[in-house]
Design goal:
The protein is an all-alpha fold. The chain has a single domain, classed as Serine Threonine Protein Phosphatase 5, Tetratricopeptide repeat (Alpha Horseshoe), CATH 1.25.40. The chain has nine helices and no strands.
Length: 174
């Protein structure tokens, strides 16, 4: 389940910060915020504790709204991974207040709501995320997790033991 959850949680890649910085300035030789970068990599690797700690440090050094948004979005994902859904919601909500079109955060907040048993809110976030990014495989996975919770599949197997082996034709009397 943890692997499926990690697959379903989306992170704002701090690599993008590096790519954008490189495009804007020829003097930057690495990510502008190494803590956000390392935190994102730790979260992607499944190390939620280190990822959250590094991201919190990176958030303290964030330069501008874009880096703040990346930090809070990744903290939303990280706290979901740590099983701290209420704390995750604080960061998810912060991102969506700044950018209501951030589909990745709808994905992650839907998982937080699932963890809290808030199924209607989870479904609404899945729907909103799919409106923003209809091709997202992550949102499809989260929708599957949602459906498993609200409409579980009955794994009942019925064996029809009324049949016997192949029937042979009746023998002819001699």
């Amino acid at each position: 389940m943890k692997h499926l959850l990690l697959f379903s949680i989306t992170l704002v890649a701090a690599m993008q910060v590096y790519a954008d910085d490189e495009a804007d300035s020829k003097t930057v030789l690495g990510p502008s915020n190494v803590y956000l970068y390392d935190g994102a990599n730790a979260l992607k690797a499944g190390d939620a504790e280190s990822g959250v700690a590094l991201t919190l440090k990176g958030l303290e050094l964030a330069q501008g709204l874009r880096e703040e948004k990346i930090g809070h979005a990744n903290l939303c994902a990280g706290f979901v991974l740590l099983g701290k859904a209420e704390t995750a919601l604080e960061h998810c909500n912060w991102v969506l207040e700044q950018d209501p079109y951030h589909w990745r955060t709808y994905n992650n907040r839907a998982i937080a709501y699932l963890r809290l048993g808030r199924f209607e809110e989870s479904e609404a976030d899945i729907r909103k995320g799919q409106e923003l990014n209809p091709r997202s495989e992550h949102l499809k996975e989260v929708k599957g997790m949602y459906l498993d919770e609200v409409e579980p599949v009955d794994e009942k197997i019925t064996i029809d033991d009324q049949r016997s082996g192949p029937r042979s034709p009746p023998e002819k009397p001699e």
